[in-house]
Amino acid sequence: MSKSFSIALLEGDGIGPELSVEAVRVLEAVETISDVSFDIMKADFGGAAYFKHGQAFPEETKAICDKADAILKGPIGLSFEESKKIPVDEQPERGALLPLRRRYNTFANFRPVYLPPELAHFSPLKPHVVEGGIDLMMIRELVGGLYFGKKEVGVNAEGKRYVIEQLEYDEDQINAIMHVAFKESMGRKKVLHNVHKSNVLKSSVLWNEILDEVAPEYPEVEVKHIIVDAAATALVINPRQFDVMVMENMFGDILSDLGGGILGSLGLMPSACVGPDKAYYEPSHGSAPDIAGKGIANPYSMLGSVALMLDKSFGMKNESRKLWDAMRSVFGAGITTADLRDPEGKLTIMKTSEFGDKVVAALKG
Ligand code: IPM
Ligand code: MN
User: How confident is the model over 224-283, as pLDDT tens digits?
Assistant: First the structure.
């Protein structure tokens, strides 16, 4: 029996469209190696959508996302100059991305920091630090905290401009992300690092309290606590000690970029944003307007997001694994694109589409 899944494809800005082309080709290749077919529905989103429709997340796009089984999203965002042409609240991050996260309550953000031996040469860390590879999963709460808390901007009694941004969580939100983190740990090494700042923040005190309440449901998982600033240091000095890490929204934003630094590029950071009813998948990197249209961006983050979608939304574990392996084998053959590090100048540099060709061939082969 063949199955069919619908995908809303939001190509996004900058390098988004060129990465999306490769994603579609890979999905077509997956159709040939499985009994599944995909119905891909493109919709405008981000800066490009604003210039076309006057809204960064247009109603038509919402309708398409609502009916899709999953959403695949390219990077969004404009150059500093282009951004200034758009009212602050319609700029792609505030006008499209945060509303997308809120609409589908995609509270669980999975950001794999994955450095198998075939990618080791991209890491700026010393070989002895990354020896044996890195495979850790950062789990970032994605719809709470400072990002979605109350905001107030004004002038106080002394005539000074001020701003208040609140870091808000309730116990249900923390409970939900903790279960996600413990379940992920159960399927892996059963070691969970809890990243917090309870020496200063009350939000972390509640966070840790809820963790203590959830932990007994997962007695096999060993919990280790680490304060967020110390975690930043530890990630650089000894990233291999980590397996699953859980953290609130803003900590996760910052530490996951550090994860990209460990790998050598945010171009190596796919992600999954999962809600109770729907999930969307996106590279963790930006739209790189400076290199857009040149065909030099590596599609790995986008294709890795496809791999996460196959696994998490469509239950296609086998095909997902094959896609990861295909990408590993292409890097393993010394192939890269111009945007990634090539410290020794020994790699074969290909265009975005040629890199895609290689992945497709490996997937089919
Ligand atoms: C990310 C990005 C976003 C965030 C921006 C684009 C709003 O940096 O997904 O990490 O801060 O969450
Ligand atoms: Mn970020």
Answer: 999 999 999 999 999 999 999 999 999 999 999 999 999 999 999 999 999 999 999 999
Beta carbons of 10 and 61 less than 8 angstroms apart: yes
Q: How many domains are there within the chain? A: 2
Whether residue 119 lies inside any domain: the answer is no
Give dist(CA 84, CA 245) in Å, integer: 36
Q: Judge if 258 and 271 occupy the same domain.
A: no
pLDDT at 170: 98
CA of 257 to the centre of ligand 1 (A): 10
Q: Are residues 47 and 96 in the same domain?
A: yes
Range of the domain at 3: 1-114+267-365
Distance 156 CA to ligand 2 centre (A): 31
Judge whether 229 counts as a catalytic residue: yes
Say if residue 194 is in the same domain as residue 102.
Answer: no
Query: Could you tell me the pLDDT band of residue 2, with boundaries at 50, 70 and 90?
Result: confident
Residue bearing the CA closest to ligand 1, atom 9? 284
Q: Output the six-digit token pair for 185.
A: 């740990």
Atom of ligand 1 nearest to the CA of 142: 12
CA–CA dist 308, 304 (Å, integer): 6
What is the domain-level CATH number for residue 184? 3.40.718.10
